[in-house]
Specification:
464 residues, alpha+beta, Beta-Lactamase, Heat Shock Protein 90, 2 domains, 6-stranded antiparallel sheet, 5-stranded mixed sheet, 52% helix, binds adenosine-5'-triphosphate, binds magnesium ion
């Protein structure tokens, strides 16, 4: 990281200073120690390890009798003991009762207050000395400084007077300079890591918010689109229905007259076309939810069986039925339900290209929070009867699955599908207070689950 390079220069400067001073004294051993000190602290990852490393080396390799390191707490204006090595601390890295020294108090406190190193030749004649259980005769105290701020203090005592001279001061000041630079670097690293963590967190938050907003916008767009198409289709279907009624009525009137046989054939074709047009209009009105539905208490199992009886010749494929015994009665418009079922079965047959079996199932469902979640149901809590149509066809790819209920969406060739079948089924099911869900797996085949609200036994009477 460029930061490290920048800070390392400070450390290197300190070493170079020390080397030029040391070479005068000819202390090659000390020089080597400082050199390896500078290299070692490069890889130290936290302040605590750094303090203990410094204390261990000041005593172990630079031959000081002891070494105590304090960190400055600017909030309380105190020095707090963070590492200590020597006779006064025989417990390794454990400090049982860390000393706290107010800035300005005693020799270390003064160094913290002034930011200046202090060497005391004879402590007995110094009024600032606060003797402890093992009194010393001489003391050296150097500050850890960064940008003019005191970060802490390195302190060493000696049982003999006059133990510390300019050479010791130079060595310890060099150690202090390197330690301060490293402390700075650690703090900067921590700050940039924190900035990075904050950045990652706000990026994640922003992405989540954008995703949610996009999803909401898509939902809104879809709802508006359907509403607009619904209104348009409804208006168109209504007007066209009136025209068709006139056409069909007039065709019927002409048919009541005696006409040549060939004209009769033309009339029959025209009437059949008008009927197909009427069916189409009915689909469109159902999609736009304008179809007049007359809900009646209906036994779905019986309705399905009767629908199959009426239409089986048109289907040319196998149908298997699995009805749950005792399915609840539902309130639906029977002829609209039949049209919806035929639509689903025609789609199933088309998907199987006349091979395979269509399976029609029914079953009761109590829709609670769990069912809503696990089945992805968009239904009010309550009792429903499920009608499922499953086929063994080509299946529906995920992208197509998102669009199959869109009006005019079809994958069939021109002239074979209007793309209104499923949107009409969905419109009718919603208008009946139910829901429809399509499923399809990678292995092919598709299932359409339609949920119709069951009649509350208490209001059963009023519907019959
Ligand atoms: N069971 C199914 N298996 C595979 N694809 C299906 C199935 N049901 C519907 N689809 C897909 O959904 C599309 C839309 O179906 P929808 O019933 O609305 O229109 P259509 O069948 O294409 O035309 P129409 O119903 O007017 O004849 C179909 O074109 C097809 O791609
Ligand atoms: Mg269809």
């Amino acid at each position: 990281m460029p930061l490290i390079t920048g800070r390392a220069t400070v450390v290197q400067k300190a070493i170079l200073n020390a080397i030029s001073e040391m070479s005068g004294t000819g202390s090659v051993g000390t020089l080597r120690t400082l050199n390896s000190f500078a290299i070692d602290i490069m890889s130290i990852r936290n302040a605590e390890d750094l303090f203990w490393y410094v204390a261990r080396n000041v005593v172990g390799r630079l031959n000081f009798v002891d070494c105590v390191i304090y960190e400055a707490d600017p909030a309380t204006e105190e020095l707090v003991q963070v590492a200590a090595l020597g006779d006064k601390n025989p417990y390794g890295r454990t400090i049982l009762n860390p000393l706290r020294i107010p800035f300005g108090e005693g020799i270390t406190g003064r160094t913290a207050r002034t930011g200046e190193a202090i060497v005391i030749e004879d402590l007995l004649s110094n009024q600032n000395y606060i003797p402890d259980t093992q009194p010393a005769r001489s003391e050296i105290c150097v500050p850890l400084i960064s940008d003019g701020r005191v970060l802490g203090v390195i302190d060493s005592e000696h049982p003999e007077a006059g133990a510390f001279g300019p050479a010791e001061l130079e060595v310890l000041s060099t150690i202090a300079a390197m330690t301060s630079a490293k402390l700075d670097l650690l703090a900067e690293t921590e700050r940039s890591e924190q900035r990075y963590r904050d950045l990652v967190q706000s990026h994640a938050q922003l992405s989540a918010e954008t995703e949610t907003r996009k999803a909401l916008e898509a939902q809104l767009f879809e709802a508006r689109k359907l509403e607009a198409i619904g209104r348009l289709t409804g208006g168109f279907a209504h007007g066209f229905n009136n025209l068709l009624t006139v056409i069909a009525g007039n065709l019927d009137l002409v048919g009541e007259h005696r006409v040549p046989p060939e004209v009769g054939v033309f009339l029959g074709d025209a009437r059949a076309a008008a009927d197909r047009g009427a069916n189409l209009i009915r689909d469109m009105m159902a999609f736009s939810q304008q179809m007049r539905l007359v809900p009646q208490p209906t036994d779905l199992n019986a309705l399905i069986a009767a629908t199959w009886d009426r239409n089986q010749r048109a289907f040319g494929c196998e149908v298997e039925m699995a009805f749950e015994a005792g399915t609840w009665t539902v309130a639906v418009d029977p002829s609209a339900t039949e049209i919806a079922l035929v639509n689903l079965m025609m789609n199933a047959r088309d998907a199987m290209e006349d091979r395979g079996t269509i399976r029609i199932e029914t079953g009761n469902l109590v829709c609670d929070d769990v069912a809503r979640r696990t089945r992805g149901l968009d239904l009010a809590p309550g009792r429903y009867v499920r009608l499922s149509v499953t086929d063994e066809g080509m299946g529906i790819p995920p992208k197509t699955l998102q669009r199959i209920f869109d009006p005019f969406f079809t994958t069939k060739v021109v002239g074979q599908g209007t793309g209104l079948g499923l949107s009409m089924v969905q419109g009718f099911v919603k208008q009946s207070g139910g829901s429809i869900i399509a499923r399809s797996g990678p292995k092919g085949g598709a299932t359409f689950d339609v949920y119709f609200p069951a009649i509350d036994p208490d209001v059963n009477e009023s519907l019959t």
